[in-house]
Write a structure and sequence with these properties.
about 140 residues; single chain; about 25% helix; six-stranded mixed beta sheet; alpha+beta
Amino acid sequence: MTTHTAPADLYRHSLKLLLDKDITAWIDLWDDNGVFEFPFAPDGWPKRLEGKAAIADYMRGYPDHIDLHDFPYVDIHQTTAAQTIVVEMRAVGRLVETGSPYDMTYIAVVTVEDGRITRYRDYWNPLVVLQDSTSDFTRSSR
C-alpha cells in the first residue's frame, strides 16, 4: 500500500491480510505511533494500545485462537474528515481451541495518515468473549 492509498482501500486490504493470517503484514499497515482503542473492552482486556510494538504484541497470537473465514458484511462510510472512515462489519470463523463458531459484529472508526493507520477505535461486542473465554487471544499476555 502506498501513501496515496485511500483509507477504505487500505482497510479492505487489512481485512484480506487478517484472512490470510498475515499478522506481520497487517502490523506493517500501522504508523509507528498508532493507537488502537477498545472502548467496550471487558475488565481485564486492554482499553488502549499505544505504538506499533504494543499493537504487534497484542495481535501476535490472534490466528492461534481465532481462525477467521470471512467478513460477510463490510460497509465502509466516509466521514467529513477525509482520512477517517467508519466501518460496520461482521467476521465469522471458528475458535481454534474448541472448534466453536466465531461470529462477531464490529463498528470501527479508523484514521489513516500518509498511508498508515494512526488511530483505530474498535467497538466490538464483548458479550461474545464473555460467553466463550477461548476467544480471549490476549489471555497469556495480560
